[in-house]
Amino acid sequence: MNSSKIAAAAKIALHWRAQSPATSAAMYLTLLCLATNSMLPASGETLQGQVTTVEEVPLVPLVPTEVDLNSFIGVWKVEIPKIRRKPTVTITSVSDKQVQGIYKGLLGTFPLWGDYQTETGEVRMFVDFSRSKLARMTRKSEKAIAHMTGKVNLADRTISGSASLPEFSSRVFAFNGKKADSKL
């Protein structure tokens, strides 16, 4: 606080001393608050060590990070332990929560499609086995579409869930997998 401000504050304080003690105390408190508000930030040496001026940093609200859909795109080595199958699922595109890709396994190579909820990691994929030799031999149905429902964990690059082929059996099989370039 410069000397002119101190002189003005002292003159006002003398005026208020003539007032009642309660009014005078309130005025001193007000002056103290005004004086500290106009002071420059601390900078120098104290008993506690070096004091430096710290600028205020505006708070930035936390915003959930966007999921990198390219992390889901790629080759996934899947295993269905109960039936001893190890197919490869290749996700070729993810757009507007829609998934497209290729399933390659014992029965051949087949188209894959489905949807992917980026917020939860939940995925539903369908594989059309209708043109497989097995589907043509049994002819139980004109179509043979496998249902795969699971959860993708992009952090550790794993996928797990359950798979079924309703046109052939009511059985449901657990599956799990890892991205092909990940260590198993």
Structural notes for this entry:
By secondary structure, this protein is of the alpha+beta class. The chain folds into two domains: 3-51, no CATH class; 69-179, Beta Barrel (Lipocalin). The protein is built from three helices and ten strands; from the N terminus they run ααβββββββαβββ. The longest helix is centred in the first third of the chain and has 17 residues, at 21-37.
- The CATH superfamily of the largest domain is Avidin-like
Strand fraction equals 35-45%
Helix content: 10-25%
What's the CATH class label of the largest domain? Mainly Beta
CATH fold name of the largest domain, please?
A: Lipocalin
The sequence of SSEs as H and E is HHEEEEEEEHEEE
Output the strand order for the largest sheet: 3-4-5-6-7-8-9-10
Q: List segments where confidence is low: pLDDT < 50 over at least 5 consecutive residues.
A: none
From the alpha carbons, calculate the radius of gyration and give it in angstroms.
Answer: 36 Å
Whole-number total of structural domains: 2
Largest sheet: 8 strands, antiparallel, barrel
**End-to-end distance, in Å?**
68 Å
Mean pLDDT reading: 77
Number of helical stretches of at least 4 residues: 3
